[in-house]
Amino acid sequence: MSHNTRQRRLDAMRACDRILSGVRPTTMRERLADMDAGGDLDDQPDFYGDGPVTTLEARVADLLGTEAAVFFPTGTMAQQVALRYGADRTGHPTVALHPLGHLEVDERHAYAHLGGLRSTWPTTAPRNPTAEEITALAEPVSTVVVELPLRGAGFVLPSWDELAAASAAAHAIGARVHFDGARIWESTPHLAHTLSEIADLADSTYVSFYKTIGGISGAALAGTTELASYARIWRHRYGGAVFQQWPAALTALAGLDRELPRIPEYVRHARTVAAALTALPGARVYPAPPHTHRFLLWLPHPAQALNDASLALAEEERVWFVAGWQETAVPGMAMTEVTVAAPALDWTAENIAEVGERFLGRVVDH
């Protein structure tokens, strides 16, 4: 997408009165208000990780029920430290990953290029590995990574029993369990357990502060005090000991206060939205019902035609429906991710059907 097209979409979405998928883009001035909501701006800023960063770390450790948590500027860095720790402690350079996970798809194989580690895939199925697949691994692994939810497969989650069994199987083969919990915040309704109960199944958990809860950046790695000490050393070595990170810390704290309590409501309403979208001609959603407040949507039209229709609807009617369409391996069938957040809560199934008809009426297949 060109810069001009991206800016046009942002401007159109910001001007909309109603938004079904996603949240209204914010300006830098609006983000400053978030910082004020996250703490007292008259306090001193952090210096290499104290002050509001320490407050955020303690908050995360409390939410996840872990001994400690360490702030990182990026999730990529936090994940590399977690895997390096596992390899150092077990002596095994192999980690069990999913080919659709962040570590393989989004982090440019940093675990291999920076950490000298290699991966094995317990499964290529569009879900996290089962206990049986972990037990059947043909070589020793230092860490078994479970992404909650697995975005690349459609924001899918295992059941609680499946997750507990997978964790037990990993420990039984002498491996650590690491939860790639970038979006773990939205996993509690489906798993029907608290964040601390979920994290208790893992030896380490990574969380993101800009995904789901709306911070401007940052992540945390949570686990034992021993892991935290190790993580602080390697954070510095990786270049993550940033002089001041109070803007990220304060917006993360604000997000934990504002967004985290609302996630169960978003997940419930996502089921209504998904069912209504399924009624559109040729539509398909997955998973059905959604496991979180995000899911995948397919429509039988070219991606460019759908994106053009979405932008036209936004600019002419000030209504943002569903955008971000991409082509799939099936010609003429496009896919996108739908995110149901606060702006979507006042949309009824009838609203979605009505606007969906107007949206599809603007689609011009070429």
TrEMBL record:
GO terms for cellular component: cytosol. GO terms for molecular function: L-allo-threonine aldolase activity. The keyword Kinase does not apply. Keywords: Pyridoxal phosphate. Its cofactor is pyridoxal 5'-phosphate. Belongs to the threonine aldolase family. This is Threonine aldolase. It comes from Dactylosporangium aurantiacum.
